[in-house]
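Is 5-amino-5-deoxy-1-O-phosphono-D-mannitol placement plausible here? Inputs below.
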Amino acid sequence: MSRSNVVERLVEGLKRLEYRGYDSAGVAITTDNLIDRRRAAGKIINLEAELAKNPLNGNKGIGHTRWATHGEAHAHNAHPHSSDKVAIVHNGIIENFADLKKDLQEKGHTFESETDTEVVVHQITDFLTTNNDPLLAVKQTLKKLHGAFSLVIIFKEYNDLMICTRSGSPLVLGYSEEDIYVGSDALALAAWTQDLVYLKEKDLAVIKDEGQHFSVTIYDEQDIIVERPHHQSRLNIDAVNKGSYNHYMLKEIYEQPFVIGETFNSLVENSTHVPHVIRETLTQLPLAEVNRIAIIACGTSYYAGMTAKYWLESYAKISVDVDIASEFRYREPLITQYDLVIFISQSGETIDTLSALRLVKEQNVKVASILNMPESSMARESDYVIQTQAGPEIGVASTKAFTCQLLTLAMITLQAAHAKGHLSTKKLEEELNTLLHLPSKILNVLQHDEAIQEISKQFVEKRDVLYLGRGTNYPIALEGALKLKELSYIHAEAYPAGELKHGPIALIDHQLPVVVLAPYDKWFEKTLSNVQEVIARGAYVVAITDTKGAALFKNQGMKNTHIIEIPIENHMLVSPIAYSIPMQLLSYYTAYFKGTDVDQPRNLAKSVTVE
Ligand code: M6R
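Reply from A.M.:
I modeled the complex. Tokens:
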């Protein structure tokens, strides 16, 4: 809500939110007893083209970029949705929309989209027609909605009013001298205001043009007027640009030596001085007392958790369970007061992970979260927050956030092992010193960029790729397969190399490339035998290994094998982080040569805020 035209700012803000979804976009304004809107299928660039053809002006407006849930990615399903009385943007899912829609249709409402959102439009319109009270109509509607949602509503006959509310999905208000902003992420508002108020669960805010100023009244779940604290955002939108790189993803891959170093520095005081002192962020974790650690996350973050299981069990002798958040939250998990539950999320907004976190907190168990976004819902709801220093990650496929999560988990492992008495102070110092030098090792791995480009060209036409790894590199193989699927749409699967003979070996023929992660570690000899088995069946193998491993591969005179030699010594904490880099480059270049949309692959969103 502003004193000047908001449409350009709406579009600018949506661009910063495009990581949430890019199936369609739209804006609507309310002015002089009129609601007017522009919408377009596809990315925001299409909305800009539509606005160039049919400009829109107004001082009060809403905008949305959509990740399709109900209804295809078409302009008629794009938000804002509107009636002759209101227009709405919505994040989340209205789970009981089918029942509500049926009732409304019976009352004579006609729908123009397949979305769940449109029932909210018609339900508010329905109440408004009878009571002529916008606030009451919204409150009555909210009582009927099931699911997770955030909503912003403008009214045709009440141009001085905007109502927003959240239940499950995040919403933040931004205050500036002139204007009031509302967004689902502080990043969307960062260009205009740093003065933020995060709405609490089930809050409803009424923003009103009082003539001389704008007022904001917040009602809590009990319908009582409340004050919510103001936060000063530290987000820097200048960090969000591609520089000289073709894609954000490549830039983010190349940022890893720096951000890994920054993450290390954030966890260790005076990181170049010996002895190293681990900061309170980690020492305050109740690691000495815990019997068991549960790690919960989704996607790439889940694979970081899987890697940490190997580390924590080996170094700290703590039993670790790793769960996919969407499974954990629905399977009546057993968590006790003696457990530490660690959530991992780049965005801090993934609804499955956030809901799992809330489930654990309901049981009065303390939670720690490893997050890249300090101003996120999970950061606000966790007992301990360990922030990675990856910086804004714009490419939908996670790269630098993943390796920073791994480093953070490696540090937690060392702290836990020391706290439990399984790692002497001298040994801890040695391990920290190894991690201190991780950035230069990553730089070294990045020098294999060109060799990996050549291999990627051979992957472009492939239908399937198999990834194999053992131990700490099994989760990295899983991550490699996920990256390839996400970016190039090539079917990829990862298996622990030892599991191959129990079924997947049937897939092997001369068409199938097999990527093997094989540092010279305690699993190496076994992996080498598995590689012989796939070569014997005609597969083409890409082996990623170190100098010792490469010598042994060559010694065995393997046919059809391309070796990428990473000249760094094997180390249990370092190896999975270092071997993630060739996985990222392989997927990036395969997608690049195939010509897919690297930064915004089809059907995906960076932050998945619906179930
Ligand atoms: O933000 P989060 O770490 O919670 O996101 C979890 C997954 O959605 C995410 O890692 C996803 O798998 C990425 N697209 C991976 O590249």
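Short version: DSSP finds 21 helices and 26 strands in the chain.
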